[in-house]
Amino acid sequence: MHARDAQLEDTELKKELAATLHARKELGDDYESALVESFLEKVDQRIDGAVDRRVRRQVAEQQMVVARGTRSPKSTDTWGERYGFGVVSLVVAIPLSGIGGGVADLPGLFVTWAGIVGVNMAWALRGSSALRRRRGKQGDSDWEE
Known about the structure:
By secondary structure, the chain is mainly α. The protein is elongated and about 95 Å long.
């Protein structure tokens, strides 16, 4: 919605509030709850309309992203996500290497590092499997003949 439309709705809402307050003065306290409920219902309708417009716009944007086959603009594929796991696993590898080497000597060290490498490979391949699924849905490429 444009700023002008929002201002128009605000102006209309202010007019309705003024009319409700004027009617309350004329009708008295007996009709106060009915007038307040009526006004709140109108405010609720305005809020629902604004929320509906925002939701429709977001759904349309997401459908466009899916239709284009591109990533969402809010993707969390950042440097921290890509390399942070590797850095953390290397930091954790130091004490694990000490424990594995201390308990089982060289075979323990090999098992420890095989586990570290395996976990990092699984982390790296999780993104490529999603990429392969997405490419598979787009159809066969010219390279796969």
